[in-house]
Amino acid sequence: METDIMLDNKNVLTMKLLHYFITEKNYNPIILQGVENEIWLENLDEDCEVVRIVTNYIHNDEQYNFDVFKTKRIVSKIKKKTFSFHMNVMSIFLDLGDNVTQDLNENPKLMAINVKDEDDITNSDVIKKLFPDLSKKMEYNEDGLELFAKITSDINKHNKEDADRLENVFKDKGPYITYFLIALCIIFYIVPILLSQYNYIISSYGVHGPSIRFGQYYRLLTGIFLHADIIHLTCNCYALYIIGSQIENYLGRVKYFIIYLFSGIIGSLFSMTFGGDAISIGASGAIFGLMGALLYFGYYYRVYLGNVVKSQIIPLILLNLGLGFVLSNVDNFAHIGGLIGGAMMAMALGVKDKSSMFEKVNGWIIVSIFTVFICYIAFIYSAV
Fold first, then answer.
1. Is 284 considered catalytic here?
2. What was the pLDDT predicted at 80?
3. Residues 284, 328, 356, 368: which is the catalytic one?
4. What is the Cα–Cα distance from 144 to 268, expressed in whole angstroms?
5. Burial class (CB in 10 A: 0-12, 13-18, 19+), 90
6. Residue 247, pLDDT score
7. Residue 66 and which of 72, 85, 211, 324 are 20 to 30 A apart at CA?
8. 3-state class of 299 per DSSP?
9. Cα-based distances in Å from 306 to 79, 84, 128, 296, 311
10. Is the pTM of this model over 0.70?
11. Number of Cβ within a 10 Å radius of residue 169
């Protein structure tokens, strides 16, 4: 009896479809509470972001219309979680009754096909357009229980590889660059005080527009390691430890270090451009750059970090920018510049296993154009 159920045509189609979408197209299952007899798969990098395999029997138009209504509600929730403005969905019905007379593709964003056998997949215009190799990939030399064993083994192997990649991304690798940057900030604060040179160091190495335009370009970098007092130092070091350790783990030490320095320099350029002739110091511009990089990383891993991005990362950025406009003696221009610089450099460097070469090339083009533009504004336009 169990063998007869396993060899049912609907189950065979389901397994073949799962094998294709998971192992060939890198779709991942979506866990949905209270949803039965249907499998939801997502891959936000595909033109069709969500695929539904529906094994439930749909008897008539009323049941079909309810299924469409339910699908729209679930898709709306997925869009909010993944920050997607639009989402194409394809429903593959494996047990659609003859009493269903509705046009399955009335809504172009909610495509649907009725599949009774593999010929329906071969003849489907929707499948030919979105997944032209699906029919060929559903051809197997195995059949029966041997086919089930192969498909199950392949899916398990693929899922394990995905789990290993995720573990490698999110596991703690040790924030050694973060410790190094914190140590530099502390040294640049304590040593000048011990040598009674604190005011001299601030005036000589802080971000100061006229001095930088005169040729003291090193101030663009040295200023991000100087701090006004112990509270300023402590707050920035704490923020650097919390945010920096995450970015160092997620993107790697080299990319993290590049993003930090580039964000700090862009923040300094914004400060000298829009902040007047006052001296600006502090690592907060670079830290905002790390926030921008974290936001970019979170976009690619929004299936896993969607709630964190909405509830923690974005509110943290908005709160700190808001405080910068309210509180005095806060260089919010450096914050804004660092935030933009960090996001752009993260795009140029890319997210491992996620960013395409096209995206990274575009990122470098944007970084280059933006850097030239802000340098022109800072050194030429603002100096007039």
1. yes
2. 82
3. 284
4. 67
5. buried
6. 93
7. 85
8. helix
9. 10, 11, 32, 12, 9
10. yes
11. 19
